[in-house]
Amino acid sequence: MSGIVAQNVGRNSGLIKAAAASGEWTLISTLTSDGSDADLSITSGIDSTYDVYCLKLFNIHAETDTAEARFNLSDDGGSSYDVTKTTSAFYGTHKESGTDAELLYEGGGDLAQGTGTQRMTLATTIGADADQSLSAEFYLFAPSSTTFVKHFLYRGQHSGASDYCTNTFVPGYANTTSAINAIQFSFDSGEIQGGSISLYGIG
Q1: Which pTM value belongs to this model?
Q2: Is residue 49 a contact partner of residue 9, using CB atoms and an 8 Å limit?
Q3: Which of 14, 22, 44, 149 is most exposed, with minimal Cβ within 10 Å?
Q4: In contact, 139 and 52? CB cutoff 8 Å
Q5: What element of type H or E holds 201?
């Protein structure tokens, strides 16, 4: 079932607040997985109120071992997630055993005018052990501009399958002059079985 802030009152503990003074963070909403979500979609609260929005992902847990986390953007309130994106992706990873440490750009992890989902877990896929999860920050800049492309920055840390620690960086832009007003997080297989996403506006 889809996790949508506006339609899941029982799982949405955030409250809409007045705009904050310059530089202050305002919590707009919090969406918590009910343990059986095909995706977690933020479809309200991203508008012209703030020039910068930050989504904080806390302990997103996968049903399926070796699942690949991903995101996509929408300019029609979540009716479709197919915004054209160009990104660059790199990662640092290290195995618990102390082997396989590396810092690399991954050409296969980025998009060049692509409309599909953007990978959030590079080098290693996420693990499904009870103590494994993904936590991250996603910044979206001036999403309501109808003049410029929409820049974003993703940085995430996940506990990988086969016990890897991996930090992924994905900067990029949505190549559209339409306003971006929704974002969806999902796995390429299985459900989201835990965790929460908080949406903040930065004044």
Answers
A1: 0.88
A2: no
A3: 22
A4: yes
A5: strand 196-202
